[in-house]
Here is the input.
Amino acid sequence: MRINPETFDFLKNLVENNNREWFQEHKDQHDNARQNVIEFTAELLKQIHKVDPLVNEEADPKKCVLRIYRDIRFRQDKTPYKNNFGVSIPTTSSKPGGVEYYFHIQPGKSMIAGGYWMPEADLLKKIRQEIDYNASDLKKIIDEPEFRKMFGNFRDQEQLKTAPQGYAADNENIDLLRLKSFIVMYNVTDKFLMKDDAPKQLADICSKIYPLNVFLRNALA
Here is the structure.
Protein backbone atom coordinates (compact mmCIF):
# COMPACT_ATOMS: atom_id res chain seq x y z
CA MET A 1 0.00 0.00 0.00
CA ARG A 2 1.33 3.43 -0.91
CA ILE A 3 0.37 7.07 -1.47
CA ASN A 4 -0.26 7.40 -5.19
CA PRO A 5 1.51 9.98 -7.36
CA GLU A 6 -1.92 11.30 -8.35
CA THR A 7 -2.60 12.19 -4.70
CA PHE A 8 0.47 14.39 -4.60
CA ASP A 9 -0.46 15.86 -8.00
CA PHE A 10 -3.89 16.84 -6.71
CA LEU A 11 -2.41 18.59 -3.67
CA LYS A 12 0.14 20.42 -5.81
CA ASN A 13 -2.58 21.64 -8.16
CA LEU A 14 -4.76 22.66 -5.22
CA VAL A 15 -2.05 25.02 -3.99
CA GLU A 16 -2.22 26.87 -7.32
CA ASN A 17 -6.02 26.78 -7.49
CA ASN A 18 -7.29 27.08 -3.95
CA ASN A 19 -10.83 28.22 -4.73
CA ARG A 20 -14.27 26.62 -4.71
CA GLU A 21 -14.79 26.77 -8.47
CA TRP A 22 -11.65 24.80 -9.28
CA PHE A 23 -12.26 22.38 -6.42
CA GLN A 24 -15.77 21.56 -7.59
CA GLU A 25 -14.51 21.00 -11.13
CA HIS A 26 -11.89 18.58 -9.80
CA LYS A 27 -13.97 17.01 -7.04
CA ASP A 28 -13.43 13.55 -8.48
CA GLN A 29 -9.66 13.99 -8.16
CA HIS A 30 -10.09 15.00 -4.52
CA ASP A 31 -12.33 12.01 -3.86
CA ASN A 32 -9.82 9.63 -5.44
CA ALA A 33 -6.95 11.16 -3.46
CA ARG A 34 -8.92 11.00 -0.21
CA GLN A 35 -9.84 7.37 -0.88
CA ASN A 36 -6.16 6.60 -1.44
CA VAL A 37 -5.35 8.18 1.93
CA ILE A 38 -8.18 6.26 3.63
CA GLU A 39 -6.95 2.92 2.26
CA PHE A 40 -3.38 3.79 3.22
CA THR A 41 -4.57 4.70 6.72
CA ALA A 42 -6.32 1.34 7.10
CA GLU A 43 -3.02 -0.43 6.53
CA LEU A 44 -1.14 2.08 8.67
CA LEU A 45 -3.47 1.34 11.61
CA LYS A 46 -2.68 -2.36 11.33
CA GLN A 47 1.05 -1.74 11.22
CA ILE A 48 1.13 0.73 14.12
CA HIS A 49 -1.03 -1.62 16.20
CA LYS A 50 1.86 -4.08 16.05
CA VAL A 51 4.02 -1.39 17.67
CA ASP A 52 1.44 0.10 20.03
CA PRO A 53 -1.38 -2.29 21.04
CA LEU A 54 -3.54 0.65 22.17
CA VAL A 55 -3.93 1.75 18.55
CA ASN A 56 -7.14 0.14 17.34
CA GLU A 57 -6.33 -1.69 14.12
CA GLU A 58 -10.06 -1.99 13.40
CA ALA A 59 -10.80 1.73 13.77
CA ASP A 60 -12.68 3.33 10.89
CA PRO A 61 -9.92 4.91 8.77
CA LYS A 62 -12.42 7.43 7.38
CA LYS A 63 -12.77 8.92 10.85
CA CYS A 64 -8.98 9.21 11.16
CA VAL A 65 -8.58 11.30 8.00
CA LEU A 66 -9.19 14.97 8.78
CA ARG A 67 -11.41 17.20 6.66
CA ILE A 68 -9.69 19.13 3.90
CA TYR A 69 -11.99 22.11 4.43
CA ARG A 70 -10.50 25.00 6.42
CA ASP A 71 -12.33 26.99 9.08
CA ILE A 72 -11.75 30.52 7.77
CA ARG A 73 -14.09 32.40 10.12
CA PHE A 74 -11.32 33.90 12.24
CA ARG A 75 -8.40 33.76 9.81
CA GLN A 76 -6.84 36.35 7.54
CA ASP A 77 -6.06 33.62 5.01
CA LYS A 78 -9.43 32.94 3.39
CA THR A 79 -8.37 30.08 1.11
CA PRO A 80 -11.05 27.44 1.69
CA TYR A 81 -8.98 24.25 1.54
CA LYS A 82 -5.98 22.77 3.29
CA ASN A 83 -3.05 21.89 1.04
CA ASN A 84 -2.56 18.56 2.80
CA PHE A 85 -4.23 15.47 4.16
CA GLY A 86 -3.92 14.97 7.90
CA VAL A 87 -4.45 11.65 9.67
CA SER A 88 -5.07 11.48 13.42
CA ILE A 89 -4.33 8.11 15.01
CA PRO A 90 -5.44 8.18 18.65
CA THR A 91 -4.95 5.40 21.15
CA THR A 92 -7.80 3.76 23.04
CA SER A 93 -6.84 5.64 26.20
CA SER A 94 -7.11 9.06 24.58
CA LYS A 95 -9.37 11.02 22.26
CA PRO A 96 -8.32 12.62 18.95
CA GLY A 97 -6.00 15.48 19.76
CA GLY A 98 -4.66 13.75 22.87
CA VAL A 99 -1.73 11.35 23.09
CA GLU A 100 -1.60 10.06 19.56
CA TYR A 101 0.30 9.53 16.33
CA TYR A 102 -0.22 11.93 13.46
CA PHE A 103 0.46 11.44 9.75
CA HIS A 104 0.72 14.46 7.45
CA ILE A 105 0.70 14.21 3.64
CA GLN A 106 1.87 17.31 1.79
CA PRO A 107 4.14 17.44 -1.26
CA GLY A 108 7.68 17.98 -0.01
CA LYS A 109 6.53 18.40 3.60
CA SER A 110 5.11 15.05 4.70
CA MET A 111 5.82 13.71 8.17
CA ILE A 112 4.93 11.25 10.90
CA ALA A 113 4.59 12.57 14.44
CA GLY A 114 3.56 11.57 17.93
CA GLY A 115 3.12 12.77 21.48
CA TYR A 116 0.70 15.38 22.84
CA TRP A 117 0.36 18.80 21.21
CA MET A 118 -0.66 21.68 23.51
CA PRO A 119 -2.52 19.77 26.26
CA GLU A 120 -5.17 21.70 28.18
CA ALA A 121 -4.22 23.23 31.51
CA ASP A 122 -5.43 20.40 33.75
CA LEU A 123 -3.71 17.76 31.64
CA LEU A 124 -0.56 19.85 31.29
CA LYS A 125 -0.43 20.02 35.08
CA LYS A 126 -0.51 16.21 35.29
CA ILE A 127 2.27 15.84 32.72
CA ARG A 128 4.45 18.35 34.55
CA GLN A 129 3.85 16.51 37.81
CA GLU A 130 4.96 13.27 36.16
CA ILE A 131 8.09 14.99 34.84
CA ASP A 132 8.81 16.36 38.31
CA TYR A 133 8.46 12.91 39.85
CA ASN A 134 10.03 10.83 37.09
CA ALA A 135 12.15 13.09 34.91
CA SER A 136 14.82 10.42 34.64
CA ASP A 137 12.37 8.16 32.80
CA LEU A 138 11.58 10.87 30.25
CA LYS A 139 15.20 11.87 29.79
CA LYS A 140 16.15 8.25 29.20
CA ILE A 141 13.75 8.30 26.24
CA ILE A 142 14.42 11.70 24.71
CA ASP A 143 18.18 11.79 25.26
CA GLU A 144 18.80 8.36 23.77
CA PRO A 145 21.20 8.97 20.84
CA GLU A 146 19.04 7.37 18.14
CA PHE A 147 15.98 9.28 19.36
CA ARG A 148 17.85 12.59 19.20
CA LYS A 149 19.24 11.73 15.77
CA MET A 150 15.75 11.04 14.42
CA PHE A 151 13.74 13.76 16.15
CA GLY A 152 16.22 16.39 17.31
CA ASN A 153 16.33 17.99 20.74
CA PHE A 154 12.99 17.39 22.47
CA ARG A 155 13.51 20.54 24.53
CA ASP A 156 13.47 22.76 21.42
CA GLN A 157 9.70 23.13 21.52
CA GLU A 158 7.62 26.09 22.60
CA GLN A 159 8.23 26.83 26.26
CA LEU A 160 7.00 29.20 28.92
CA LYS A 161 9.33 32.15 29.37
CA THR A 162 9.26 31.67 33.13
CA ALA A 163 8.94 28.70 35.47
CA PRO A 164 5.41 27.27 35.68
CA GLN A 165 3.47 27.93 38.84
CA GLY A 166 4.59 25.69 41.68
CA TYR A 167 8.10 25.04 40.35
CA ALA A 168 11.33 26.81 41.18
CA ALA A 169 13.30 28.48 38.41
CA ASP A 170 16.41 26.53 39.47
CA ASN A 171 14.69 23.14 39.27
CA GLU A 172 17.14 20.79 37.55
CA ASN A 173 14.44 19.82 35.02
CA ILE A 174 13.05 23.29 34.42
CA ASP A 175 13.71 23.02 30.67
CA LEU A 176 11.25 20.12 30.52
CA LEU A 177 8.76 21.58 33.00
CA ARG A 178 8.46 24.76 30.91
CA LEU A 179 7.37 22.88 27.79
CA LYS A 180 3.90 23.60 26.39
CA SER A 181 3.87 20.64 23.99
CA PHE A 182 5.39 17.17 24.05
CA ILE A 183 5.69 16.09 20.44
CA VAL A 184 8.25 14.74 18.00
CA MET A 185 8.18 14.78 14.20
CA TYR A 186 10.04 12.93 11.48
CA ASN A 187 9.98 14.21 7.90
CA VAL A 188 9.50 11.76 5.03
CA THR A 189 9.83 12.32 1.30
CA ASP A 190 7.19 11.88 -1.37
CA LYS A 191 9.30 9.04 -2.77
CA PHE A 192 9.27 7.34 0.64
CA LEU A 193 5.46 7.39 0.73
CA MET A 194 5.14 6.08 -2.82
CA LYS A 195 6.86 2.82 -1.89
CA ASP A 196 4.67 -0.23 -1.33
CA ASP A 197 6.03 -0.83 2.19
CA ALA A 198 5.49 2.77 3.35
CA PRO A 199 2.97 1.86 6.12
CA LYS A 200 5.41 -0.57 7.69
CA GLN A 201 8.25 1.91 7.45
CA LEU A 202 6.14 4.58 9.13
CA ALA A 203 5.23 2.11 11.86
CA ASP A 204 8.93 1.46 12.42
CA ILE A 205 9.37 5.18 13.04
CA CYS A 206 6.39 5.10 15.41
CA SER A 207 8.15 2.36 17.37
CA LYS A 208 10.70 5.02 18.35
CA ILE A 209 7.90 7.38 19.41
CA TYR A 210 6.05 4.70 21.36
CA PRO A 211 8.02 5.03 24.66
CA LEU A 212 7.25 8.77 24.72
CA ASN A 213 3.54 8.09 24.24
CA VAL A 214 3.63 5.52 27.03
CA PHE A 215 5.23 8.05 29.39
CA LEU A 216 2.56 10.65 28.54
CA ARG A 217 -0.30 8.18 28.89
CA ASN A 218 1.00 7.09 32.28
CA ALA A 219 1.10 10.73 33.34
CA LEU A 220 -2.58 11.12 32.48
CA ALA A 221 -3.78 7.79 33.86
Q: What stands out?
A: The chain has a mean pLDDT of 94. The first strand starts at residue 85 and ends at 90. The CA atoms of residues 5 and 181 lie 33 Å apart.
